[in-house]
Amino acid sequence: MINEALVLSAIIFVIGTFGVLVRRNAIIMFLCIELQLNAVNVAFVAFANLYGIEGQIFVFFVMTVAAAEAAVGLAIIISIFRHYETVDVGSFNLLKW
Amino acid sequence: MELDFSRSLHYWWALLPEIVLCLWGMGVLIAGVSKRYRLAGEDATGDPTLSGSADLGWLALFGVFSAAFANGWLYGVREVGSAGMIAVDPFRLFANWVLLLGAALTILISFAYVHRQRLQAGEFYGLILLATAGMMFMVAGRDLIVIFLGLEVMSVAVYALTAFNRRDRRSAEAGLKYFLLGAFATGFLLYGIALVYGATGSTNVATIGAVVTGGTATPGLLSIGIALITIGFGFKVAAVPFHMWTPDVYEGAPAPVTAFMSAAVKAAAFVAFMRVFVVAFEGAVDVWYPIVWWLAALTMVAANLMALVQSNVKRMLAYSSIAHAGYLLVAMTAANETAAAGLLFYLLVYTLMNTGAFAVVISVAHQSEERLQVEDYAGFGWAQPMLGVALTILLLSLAGFPGTGGFMGKIFLLQGAADAELWVLSVILVLSTVASYWYYLRIAWFMWMKNPSSERQHAHVVAPLPLQFALIACVALILYTGIFPGTALEFARASVQGLGTLGDTGGGFAP
Fold first, then answer.
1. CATH 1.10.287.3510 fits A2-90, yes or no
2. Given B47, B67, B188, B430, which residue has the most CB atoms within 10 angstroms?
3. Which residues pair with B78 in a beta bridge?
4. Residue range A6-53, pLDDT digits in tens
């Protein structure tokens, strides 16, 4: 059971990583990062099955932090949308991307 | 006083500096929304040290001092019994001094900037305090959960600070870039932590160390986990090839925030990096030694080469900060006590010289961060002798000129590298330092040897009293640590004593 869970977590993580690297829409990139974090959660829960409660506690911290990050991240995306009226990172050109 | 972590009340005492700082941070935030300060932020005339926004700055500075007081008090505390999730060792306390110093200097150089850019002072200073509290959690963590939480408290606050100047497009762009890449790196760090947890069955740094040394960890999971954690930390300390965000973010962020990021954020990340790798992964040194070796070599060479061609001073200082991360990675590779003491010493002088250099950059940039090119410094030394001499000394220290703290720091890093017989890295360090003389001294040359393009070029340089004070303190301490390095070095040496052995197993839920 644990191997299947770990393979699932690895697949989700890779999808998230590729998403961040390939997509150019800031919100989609952010969603892919959330996907990565949830892959981590799956891995933690799987390992907690072996080692006890500590891994599950970690999952709660990860979820809380992801929520805090979402709040700040979406605020930043809104503030840049006000300047450019787009969230496509390819069209932000003052700094080299 | 004795701390026994089996009693949860004692965690409050162990975290006193962080708690004090959090409370002050929230206090400054609340004071900042009161009507008086909101209106004060809208009026960008008058003396920056007397306006309403300055009150909040002084309040935040006072918070930093009370946290420093609590930090000093912790020296009288002794741990008994099993090690908990929080380290109360001199290593952490020394790192706290560096972080608090960085925060205090940042606040001092921000007064004029916050005033003339009409930033919301309460939020700005509050976020600086909360970010510092996050860093202090990070360096105090003896459990990967605490290190991760500290890292995120720090990062989320710094994301917001980077994008703080909402009227400036570059600031918003830098904030978005830092946020996306920072969160991306956090994903790698977390996956690494999950795999290390899977390999060893614990998140406690000391327990992981015992399991890894004992050889009972699952090797495959552990190696991948360590590699992913290295990527995560590599992003935070801006090591090549994970540095792509650094120049853009440092260029776009408000200048005091750039100073804060390049000094304090880097210091916190390095101290946590050191603790995790030296204590937890000591038994797996074969896995991470080649990775960190190549990171150090690549970072030093690539950053110095790219810095050579920069014409924007803020961007040049960003590459210089990447190069300094490379020098510090040499100490990580050496991973002995001499190198750890050298790392602490170097973080201290680096915080001083980099924040000082940014103080002058803030003064020259004047109104809206436009005057940032090297040409804008032409003749600056003769027009503003005090700032000119200070910047020259700080640049010489960044380059590592004898007689300055930067030189002594490099000597101690080399000493640690020599103890670990890292001859190739030592040679790269020396050669890249020589190459770095060119871009540091180019600014000094423009300042003293070139004529300004117009008579009025330096007429608008603003250097209010707090900024001057911070600058003088930086220069004085740089010269002091350069000429009499003994005191600070002894302090750093005493602070790393027993780092590798401290924290006997027993915390966490080991199998």
1. yes
2. B67
3. B2
4. 999 999 999 999 999 999 899 999 999 999 999 999 999 999 999 988
